Structures are given as structure tokens and as C-alpha cells.
From TrEMBL:
Protein name listed in UniProt: Putative 4-hydroxy-4-methyl-2-oxoglutarate aldolase
Cofactor: a divalent metal cation
Subunit annotation: Homotrimer.
Function description: Catalyzes the aldol cleavage of 4-hydroxy-4-methyl-2-oxoglutarate (HMG) into 2 molecules of pyruvate. Also contains a secondary oxaloacetate (OAA) decarboxylase activity due to the common pyruvate enolate transition state formed following C-C bond cleavage in the retro-aldol and decarboxylation reactions.
The enzyme's E.C. designation: 4.1.1.112, 4.1.3.17
InterPro entries: RraA/RraA-like, RraA/RraA-like_sf
Top-level taxon of origin: Bacteria
Catalytic activity: 4-hydroxy-4-methyl-2-oxoglutarate = 2 pyruvate; oxaloacetate + H(+) = pyruvate + CO2
Organism: Pseudonocardia ailaonensis
Length: 218
């Protein structure tokens, strides 16, 4: 890739699902972490936050330190009984040029956040507030949505979910994603010409063997 900006733009174009497949089906966060709005998409380098459940001091600290183009990635320990992120934090992050938020936890003020157009990916929505006591940790490796995220890894999020691309595999992900995209374009052309998808993806022998092995009446 000519530049980091080109690589990030390409990963966003490819999308979370294609990047996940291209990486060998690794890097996908728990399916429960979804965008507040299906139209949200995000790509950027991860700025990591390890936050105590029910406390958002670390979240505020992370938003304070994160830079333009970063994606704030918060391990909130799957805690969904309070919302440590809301509309004011979204406005602050948006003003700073932060690209978006991925949190393994809940948020609140969801309609206002959607109205702002600030990309937020979360496990749930909860109206309850949080404490501001535990500083947690920022800028260190975390686990979010079941995936290890290191500072500087690339986050790709859209309607399908969130994929984490290790920073050393960004160029590989772009190249492999392009190959997958090209192969799928070939499938579509062949399907338009009447080809069977079973043959295109080379599973006819497997399917025939499975059908032959099936017991009558099963």
C-alpha cells in the first residue's frame, strides 16, 4: 500500500466480514458487539482502554488521550447493567477527530449518538449511570469481544460486526481481501451465466458423499 491512509481506506471498503475471511477467519469480535445504527462503519488504529465494570473514569481518560483517527476500544468486562458512554462523550470524541468507539459493554443516549453520526459499536444499551473512581489502564493490550487488541491494531467495523487486524498484517489483509473480492466477483459473473454455486465453491463431491451416507428416513 502507498500509505497508511490508503490501507485503512481499502480495509473499510472491503468490510469487516471480508477482512475476517481473508485473515483466515480470525479477528472477529463476539457477534453481540454491534453498531448502534446499521449504517455505522469505522476503521482506524486502536486506542485501548481497560475499564472497571460500572465505572467510566478510564473511559474519560482514554477519550482525553486518544488522537485523531483513533478508534477507542474499551474492555468493559461485558458489563451491561450501566452505560459508561453517552452523547456528551460522543460529542467530545467527535470534536477531537476520534474515529469511533468499540466497547465490550453498554452505552446510553443511543438516539442522540445516532443523530450525531458518531460510530459506536457496543454489546447493549443501558440507561443507568456509572461511577468515576477506577482509573483502569490505557494504551495496553486488552481483550474486547473475545479478541486480543493491542494499541495500534486496526479496527474494521460495519453492519456485520467488528474485526481486529493485527498491525503487522494490515498489508496482508488488504491483499488477501482483494483476492477474495476478485474471486467473489467471478462467482457472481458465473452465477449470472447459470453456473451452480455448489460447483463454483467445489463442494459437490462433499455434498454427494454426505447424501450417500445419509440413512434412509434420516
Amino acid at each position: 500500500m502507498d500509505s497508511e491512509a490508503d490501507a485503512l481506506r481499502r480495509l473499510k471498503e472491503l468490510g469487516a466480514a471480508t477482512v475476517y475471511e481473508a485473515l483466515g477467519r480470525v479477528g472477529a469480535m463476539d457477534h453481540a458487539i454491534k453498531p448502534l445504527d446499521p449504517g455505522f462503519s469505522v476503521v482506524g488504529r486502536a486506542f485501548t482502554v481497560d475499564s472497571a465494570p460500572g465505572d467510566n473514569l478510564a473511559v474519560h481518560y482514554g477519550a482525553h488521550l486518544a488522537g485523531e483517527g483513533d478508534v477507542l476500544v474499551v474492555d468493559a468486562k461485558e458489563f451491561t447493567a450501566a452505560g459508561p458512554w453517552g452523547d456528551v462523550l460522543s460529542e467530545y470524541a467527535q470534536k477531537k477527530g476520534i474515529a469511533g468507539l468499540v466497547i465490550d459493554g453498554a452505552v446510553r443516549d443511543s438516539r442522540a449518538i445516532v443523530g450525531l453520526g458518531f460510530p459506536v459499536f457496543c454489546r447493549d444499551v443501558c440507561i443507568k449511570g456509572t461511577d468515576k473512581v477506577n482509573l483502569g489502564r490505557v494504551g495496553e493490550p486488552i481483550v474486547c469481544g473475545g479478541v486480543t487488541v493491542r494499541p495500534g491494531d486496526v479496527i474494521v467495523g460495519d453492519a456485520d460486526g467488528v474485526t481486529v487486524v493485527p498491525q503487522e498484517l494490515v498489508d496482508e489483509a488488504c491483499a488477501a481481501g482483494a483476492r477474495r473480492e476478485q474471486a467473489e466477483a467471478g462467482y457472481r459473473t458465473a452465477i449470472a451465466g447459470g453456473a451452480s454455486l455448489i460447483d463454483l465453491i467445489k463442494v459437490r463431491d462433499t455434498l454427494d458423499a454426505a447424501l450417500a451416507a445419509r440413512k434412509p428416513g434420516s
